[in-house]
Specification:
Helix content is 27%, strand content 31%. The protein is of the alpha+beta class. The protein has one domain: Gcn5-related N-acetyltransferase (GNAT) (Aminopeptidase). It has an eight-stranded mixed β-sheet, sandwiched between helices. Strand 4 and strand 5 form a beta hairpin. It is globular. The termini are far apart. Bound molecules: coenzyme A.
């Protein structure tokens, strides 16, 4: 990993008295990312990928594990299992097209760990990281039939608008830098 700004170690409390850590993804997280995907219900997979998907494509995994941590970033929420190993229970990610300053995010939280604020914290830390690296705007494409995600991003200050050419999606945008 080559982070120009060290990512602070962030520990948050879970509702059951345990806690979880948010950290940048690491190259050795491949199996843990597959484990997270396997813990997503078919509905959650559909909401995340906008189509039915039963296995993560290898090129998706390669992309997500090989980041520059500036224009591309992924944060994972991690718990310790009973045997002391790590389990990834959520991931937020952005990618920025070449020569642009508008990044596109995505977010997933394991079905067994939703409603504990993990998605919100993953997004807040991702937004902070994008701001620190001078990205100008964060955008996301959220299915219109995903009220929970639309609610979550609205609470974070994102503007929600309809996609002109596709009623199935909402475009959500957040300015990252103060323009004044
Ligand atoms: C949408 C998704 C990311 C939300 O993740 P999450 O971790 O449940 O999100 P949060 O817990 O931060 O927020 C969800 C709700 O939990 C509430 N919450 C926050 N902290 C809480 C806590 N400690 N205890 C109970 N509820 C809590 C929030 O207030 C929010 O409720 P609200 O909708 O009434 O405001 C998750 O359901 C998911 O992965 N869905 C499938 C994939 C998907 O839709 N991805 C988005 C496509 S980009």
């Amino acid at each position: 990993m080559n982070l120009s700004t060290p990512f602070p170690k962030k520990i948050y409390t879970l509702g059951n008295g345990g806690d979880y850590l948010i950290r940048p993804i690491q190259i050795n997280d491949r199996e843990r990312i597959i484990g997270l995907f396997n813990n997503l219900s078919p509905e959650s997979r559909y909401l995340r990928f906008a189509h039915a998907i039963s296995k993560l494509p290898d090129d998706f995994l390669d992309d997500i594990l090989h980041l520059d941590y500036v224009n591309e970033m992924a944060l994972v929420a991690v718990i310790q299992t009973h045997n002391g190993s790590e389990e990834i229970i959520g991931i937020s990610r952005y990618v920025t097209p070449p020569n642009q300053q508008i990044c596109e995010f995505s977010l997933s939280v394991s079905d067994t760990h939703t409603e504990h604020g993990i998605g919100t914290h993953l997004m807040l830390d991702l937004i902070a990281h994008a701001k620190e690296h001078d990205l100008q705007e964060m955008v996301g494409y959220v299915l219109s039939g995903n009220p929970k995600m639309l609610h979550l991003v609205a609470d974070l200050g994102f503007q929600i608008s309809s996609a002109d050419d596709d009623p199935d999606f909402k475009i959500v945008t957040l300015l990252l830098q103060d323009k004044s």
